[in-house]
Structures are given as structure tokens and as C-alpha cells.
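Re: the 194-residue chain
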Amino acid sequence: MPRTSTAIEGLLSIADISRHFSLPESTTRYYCKRFSAFVPSVGEGRRRRYRPETLEVIATILEQMQKSRTAAAVEDALHARFPQNAPAIAHQSGAPVVTEIGGNVLPAAALQLMERQTVALEGIAQLLHVIVQQKNAPSLQADQIDGLRQDVETLRLLLESSEKTQQADLDQLRSWMAKVIQKKTLPETLSTPS
């Protein structure tokens, strides 16, 4: 389960939280973003740091994900146990939020695309959970089991396709960001004598 963190007294980074729970940073980042209404933090973007209370929120998220495996159920459990953050409530209500990476504002279309993919992956995870529950039912007959195997294979293919699409979108976003950075640095290099 969780390991001891050396940064408990101060503010925590994603890496600190990940080490504490032995989680990949991408998973921790997803939980902090998905359940941001309950994760106490300060700062924005790469300078965002998390208060020590975040460890308790993440522990609850991990516990609930093992029990229910749906983000909606986790959110219900968090509502019952933790207060919501005011900035996150403003974001959920439609207040504008600026997203920057390396000083460049991300286009809204890229953020919407990432959000749609996240929703699709959550849907696939929920379907897999239902299939696992059905598969563990003792009264299943052979034809039902074969049908479930086909469903699992179909979901596996959908997940692989979704992951490939997400990777292609990330590559395209990186390419776009490189072009923006190159356009910003190109005039500076032309103006300095060599």
C-alpha cells in the first residue's frame, strides 16, 4: 500500500504523491485533474502544488476505485467525505480557465478532444467492469460465456484503437507546440549576430 513521503509537511508535487502511493505519475495526474473539485492545491499549471490533505483524498479515490471502479461512484464518496474547492466549482460552472504549457495557450479544440477521449475511456472501463461482474456470476451457461469473451475482445480492440488515436492526437499536439515554439524563437535567432 502507500509508502512514506518525505514531503508531507510542505506542499506536494505530482511526483511526491505518486511516490507516496507507488502510482505512475500519469495516473496521479489524472486523479488530481478528474477529481480536482476535492483535491486541495495552490498555483497553476506546472507550478501547481498540492496540500498534504491531498494524500487522504487520493487514498479515498484509490479505495473507491477498487470497490466500485466508476468515477461517478468515486465522486459520490468524495462528496460525502470532503469539501469542494472554490476554483474547481467555478471551472465546473463554466467560468473560463486558461490552460498553458510552456507559456503557450493550448487551443480549446485540443482540450475538448482530450476530454472526449477521457470520457470514452471511462465508458470502456465501466463496460469492462460490468462484463467482469457478469463473468463471475455462477449460473452462466457456455453460450453466455462465449458471448462475454467476444464482448471482452471487442472492448479490447476499442481500447487499443482509442489509445492509438489518443497517441496520434498527442503527437499532433506536440508537433503543433513545436511549430509555435519555433515561430517564437526563429525571429530571435535571426536578430542575433553569429
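The first strand starts at residue 41 and ends at 42.
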